[in-house]
Amino acid sequence: MSPSPLSVVVTGANRGIGLGLVQQLVKDKGIKHIIATARDVEKATELNAIKDPRLHVLPLTVTSDKSIDTLVSKVGEIVGSDGLNLLVNNAGIAVKYGSKTEPNRAQLTEQLDVNTVSVVIVSQKFLPLLTTAASKVSGDALSVSRAAVVTISSGLGSITENTTGSALFDALAYRMSKSAVNQFTRTFAIDLKDEHILAVSFCPGWVQTDMGGQQAQLTVEQSTSELVSSFNKLGNEQNGGYFRRDLTPFQF
Ligand code: NDP
C-alpha cells in the first residue's frame, strides 16, 4: 500500500462511476485536494452536495482543448509546487446505433473522440503537473502517491476475450475505443518510465449507472470502493497494465 496521493483529478464526476470514485476518495483523509470535473458544474447536484473543503468542482468538456487548458491552469493554482499526483480518466460515452451498416463515420468519430482521443489529450496536458509531482520523490518506485494516470477502460476493450462481437449492446465502436485506450496506457507507461509516471487501465465491472443500466451486477459503491483500494496498491509491477477492479489482470 502506498500512502495517499496528495491530489487527485477525476473526470466525468457528476454521475455514475466518476461520482462514486469521488465519494470514495473523500473518505481518504490523507488526500489534500480532490478535483472533480463536470461538463455543467451548476447541474452537478450530487457532487455539489458533498460538503468537504478539499473538494473542488470544476468544469471540463474533454473534447474541448480550451476547456482542458482552463482546467489544467486552475488545477495548477490549487496544487501549486506539489504538482498533481493522480489523474483518473473516467469520462466516457457508449454511442448508440441500430442498423448493421452502422456505426457510421460520425458515430465512430464521436465514440473515439470522447473515449480515446480525449484521454490522450487530457493526459498530455496534465503531463507538466504530473512530472512536477513525480520529481518530488527520488528513486524509481512508481505509485499513485507519486504520479499516475489511471484510465477507466472496459472489459469490452479486451481483444483476447471478445467472443460476443457487437452483442450485449451496439458494442463495436465502444470496444474499439477501449482497446485503443489500452494501447495508449501501455505506450504512455513505457514512454514515461523515466519521468516516473505510472499508467494503468481498469475495467470497473458491469456497474449500475446510466451507461451500465440498472440490471448491472454491481452498485457504484461496490465497484468504486474496490477500484480506489486497488489504486493505492499500484506499483512498478503493474505499470502499463490492464486490470479488473480487484487488480487481477485482464488479457489485452
Ligand atoms: P455514465 O454515463 O453514468 O457517466 C458518464 C460520465 O462521463 C458523465 O459524468 C458524463 O458527463 C461524462 N462525460 C461524457 N462525455 C463527456 C465529455 N465529452 N466531456 C466531459 N465529460 C463527459 O457512465 P459510467 O459512470 O457508467 O461510466 C464511466 C466510465 O466507466 C466510462 O469511461 C465507461 O466507459 C466506463 N465503464 C462503465 C461500465 C458500466 O458498467 N457502467 C463498464 C465498463 C466501463 P454528463 O453527465 O455531462 O453527460
From TrEMBL:
<protein>
    <submittedName>
        <fullName>Uncharacterized protein</fullName>
    </submittedName>
</protein>
<dbReference type="InterPro" id="IPR036291">
    <property type="entry name" value="NAD(P)-bd_dom_sf"/>
</dbReference>
<dbReference type="GO" id="GO:0005737">
    <property type="term" value="C:cytoplasm"/>
</dbReference>
<dbReference type="GO" id="GO:0016491">
    <property type="term" value="F:oxidoreductase activity"/>
</dbReference>
<dbReference type="Pfam" id="PF00106">
    <property type="entry name" value="adh_short"/>
</dbReference>
<dbReference type="InterPro" id="IPR002347">
    <property type="entry name" value="SDR_fam"/>
</dbReference>
<dbReference type="InterPro" id="IPR051468">
    <property type="entry name" value="Fungal_SecMetab_SDRs"/>
</dbReference>
<comment type="similarity">
    <text>Belongs to the short-chain dehydrogenases/reductases (SDR) family.</text>
</comment>
